[in-house]
């Protein structure tokens, strides 16, 4: 979730412009226009943008691989010869 405020605003608009059983928007601003109406389309686009999963959305940073440090245990067995 990138922009909660924008998403919330767009969600409210989309809620107010849901098509009814006949596939028409009964919102007062639309007056029975064929769904999806312009406000609903705009709201859904804004919701996608707010979530950041549109084509122009934010790119997640790629996980950086940790450098593998070669840890070699020391062997204290050098030059130990029984005479
Ligand atoms: Zn509408």
Structure, explained:
This protein is mainly alpha-helical and 83 residues long. It has a domain at 4-51. The chain has two helices and two strands; from the N terminus they run H-E-E-H. A two-stranded antiparallel sheet has the order 1-2. Strand 1 (24-25) and strand 2 form a beta hairpin. Helix 1 (4-16) packs antiparallel against helix 2. The chain is rod-shaped and about 105 Å long. The relative contact order is 0.17. The model has no long low-confidence stretch (mean pLDDT 83). The structure holds zinc ion. Zinc ion binds next to helix 2. Residues 72-83 have a biased composition (Basic and acidic residues). Residues 51-83 are annotated as: Disordered. Residues 52-61 have a biased composition (Low complexity).
Topology of helices and strands:
Layout (H helix, E strand, L loop, with lengths): L3 H13 L7 E2 L7 E2 L3 H14 L32
Overview in brief:
The protein contains two helices and two strands; from the N terminus they run αββα. It has 83 residues and is mainly α.
Supply database-style keywords.
binds zinc ion; two-stranded antiparallel sheet; 2 strands; 83 residues
Percentage of β-strand residues: under 5%
Q: Please summarize the sheet with the most strands.
A: 2 strands, antiparallel
> Which hetero compounds are present in the coordinates?
zinc ion
Side by side, the strands of the main sheet go 1-2
Mean pLDDT: 83
Q: What's the order of the H and E elements? A: HEEH
Helix content: 25-40%
Structural class: mainly alpha
Distance between the termini: 73 Å
Number of continuous helical runs: 2
Global outline: rod-shaped
Nearest-angstrom radius of gyration? 30 Å
Number of strands: 2
Weakly predicted, low-confidence segments: none
Biased composition (Basic and acidic residues): 72-83
Biased composition (Low complexity): 52-61
Region (Disordered): 51-83
């Amino acid at each position: 979730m990138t922009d909660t405020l924008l998403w919330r605003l767009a969600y409210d608009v989309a809620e107010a412009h849901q098509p009814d059983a006949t596939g028409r928007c009964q919102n007062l601003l639309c007056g029975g226009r064929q769904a999806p109406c312009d406000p609903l389309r705009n709201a859904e686009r804004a919701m996608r943008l707010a979530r950041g999963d549109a084509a122009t959305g934010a790119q997640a940073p790629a996980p950086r691989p940790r450098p593998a440090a070669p840890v070699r245990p020391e062997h204290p067995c050098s030059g130990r010869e029984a005479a």
